[in-house]
Amino acid sequence: MSTAPEPLAGQVVLVTGATDGLGRALATELARGGATVLVHGRDAGRIAATIDSIRAGTGSDRLRPYQADFAELAQVRSLAEQVTATERRLDVLVNNAGIGTTVPGGGTRMESADGYELRLAVNYLAGYLLTRLLLPLLTSSAPARIVNVSSLGQQAIDFGDPMLTSGYSGERAYCQSKLAQILFTIDLAGYLDGTGVTVNALHPATYMPTKIVASPWSTIEEGVEATLRLVADPGLATVTGRFFNGQREAQADPQAYDPQARQRLRDLSGKLTGLPPLS
Asked: Please, how many CA atoms are within 13 Å of residue 187, restricted to the half-sphere of its CB?
């Protein structure tokens, strides 16, 4: 049995992809617990409607809107600039925003505004860039946490063709992007050692009823409980660089534990985002 979560009052938590599914449900629970929730989405109308709904359901007035389309890295940079300029602290970053295997595009190959394969761009690169740009704020707010919402759906990254210009499938693209999150999680944990900032990844629950899942198996509540545990459980205060399946620590695809693969992803991520790779 896990330890009860720490009080959330006074915590500032940014939840990306907070206007639907797991993100919206998590933002609601965080607000109910007294946290200040930074509600991210890509559509202003949906952000406003989400905030109205959370306020009505929880009575919280500690909700702030942030807008960015993760299919365009310039908007991710702008989001990081806005958060840094507006927020005095950031206790938790939850990288939840993402797209599935067939939504959008029905499984056809699509590209981001920057010309990158869309699932890699939205599911991995956007969160990578946002996290890197917010590290100074997170570090100055330490103890702080980063939670990367990944998946059990993982496939080794083809570094010879990371944009999947041949042999494309939505499932393959999704699984590679989700594994990239875990490689980054392990790398970042080492980089942040001694800073008071932890980073972990999880598969929150299997086929939750969200807009990207056709046939749900589990509930949103299961996913919220698992994610909230990584956000606030005091028993995980110093746990970092791990992958969880729900509330259990688990093993990711073997590539996640390959230092050479992580180095190749560091180099690729730096090239695609214009940031120096993590040392």
From this structure: 25
The residue length of the chain stands at 279
Q: What are the tokens at 176?
A: 């590679």
Beta 36-41 vs 144-149: how paired, if at all?
A: unpaired
Given the residues 124, 128, 174, 207, select the one marked as catalytic: 174
Q: Is residue 4 part of a domain?
A: no
Total domains present in the chain = 1
To 5 degrees, how large is the angle CA 117–CA 120–CA 122?
100
Q: Which residues contact 6 (CB under 8 A, 6 or more apart)?
A: 232, 233, 234
- Return the pLDDT at 4: 37
What single DSSP character describes residue 125?
A: I
pTM of the predicted model as reported, rounded to 2 decimal places:
0.94
Low-confidence ranges of the chain (pLDDT < 70): 1-6, 207-218
Cα 194 to Cα 197, 240, 270, distances in angstroms: 8, 11, 23
Q: Are 117 and 173 in contact (CB under 8 A)?
A: yes
Q: Rounded CA gap, 132 and 128, in Å?
A: 6
Is 174 in the active site? yes
Nearest Cα to 133, choosing from 90, 98, 194, 196? 90
Residue at 149: amino acid letter = V
Distances (CA, A) of 23 to 39, 85, 157: 9, 23, 26
CATH code of the domain in which 259 resides: 3.40.50.720
The verdict on residue 75 lying in a domain is yes
